[in-house]
Write a structure and sequence with these properties.
The structure holds 2 protein chains of 2 kinds. By secondary structure, chain A is mainly β. Chain A has no helices and 11 strands. In chain A, strand 7 and strand 8 form a beta hairpin. Chain B is mostly beta strands. Chain B is 0% helix and 49% strand. In chain B, the strands form 2 sheets. In chain B, strands 2, 4, 5, 6, 9, 10 and 11 form a 7-stranded mixed β-sheet that branches. Chain B has a 4-stranded antiparallel β-sheet with strand order 1-3-8-7, with no helix packed on it. Chain B is globular and about 35 Å long. Classes of the chains: A mainly beta, B mainly beta. The interface between A and B is medium-sized, with 22 and 27 residues.
């Protein structure tokens, strides 16, 4: 059973566009929601994270929107650049400190 | 401050051999996690360890797989009698504590079983 559902599977945007990646979860015990960026052949790198007591967090061009009642959260990338082309994973931390990862979104930003 | 280190980066084993993957957490981090990533898939949790203790191994196959994090030295993920289905990227992550929640990943070990 997929604890965290992520969509879309892939996304193509023009440079300057605002890709949006969505995640949904079921377990209300989750209390930490990070996003990771992964380039081919590399490990995931922590991008930005949010806790359920806030509805939005912004760091640079990256924004997380969090809807606790709907159990959904999303990543927005403002003014996207070709260098943002990567795979993005959402995650939620559960009991035992393990992360449940989404299945990933492959983002391509066209110059 | 060096990040999470994993070695080897690439490992090729024949079916039936043993694979040993090593992970050195970031300085000051006492929590280590192992994940497996198959092509075109997300990361799947395997095991969570603190120094000399396995805290949660619910994601680890019951047979052939084991993990340790000794008092001194790196964490080791050991796969005995490897099969082709074990071919994957194995990532280690570390965190300073549970309260923060942040996990920092290493570059991974890509295991190929021939």
């Amino acid at each position: 059973q997929q604890q965290v559902k992520q969509s879309p599977q892939s996304l193509i945007v023009q440079k300057g566009g605002i890709p949006i990646i969505n995640c949904a979860y079921e377990n209300t015990a989750f209390d930490y929601f990070p996003w990771y960026q992964q380039f081919p052949g590399k490990g995931p790198a922590l991008l930005i994270a949010i806790r359920p007591d806030v509805s939005e967090k912004k760091e640079g061009r990256f924004t997380i929107s969090f809807n606790k009642s709907a159990k959904q959260f999303s990543l927005h990338i403002m003014d996207s650049q070709p260098g943002d082309s990567a795979t993005y994973f959402c995650a939620a931390i559960g009991t035992g400190n393990q992360f449940y990862f989404g299945t990933g979104t492959s983002l391509t930003v066209i110059p | 401050n060096a990040g999470v280190m994993q070695n080897p980066r690439h490992l090729v084993r024949r079916r039936g051999q043993e694979a040993r993957l090593r992970c050195s957490p970031m300085k000051g981090h006492s929590h280590v996690y192992w994940y497996r990533q198959l092509p075109e898939e997300g990361l799947k949790f395997m095991v969570y360890l603190q120094k000399e203790n396995i805290i949660d191994e619910s994601g680890m196959p019951k047979e052939r797989f084991s993990a340790e994090f000794p008092k001194e030295g790196p964490s080791i993920l050991r796969i005995q009698q490897v099969v082709r289905g074990d071919s994957a990227a194995y990532f280690c992550a570390s965190s300073p504590d549970r309260v923060n929640g942040e996990q920092y990943f290493g570059p991974g070990t890509r295991l190929t079983v021939t």
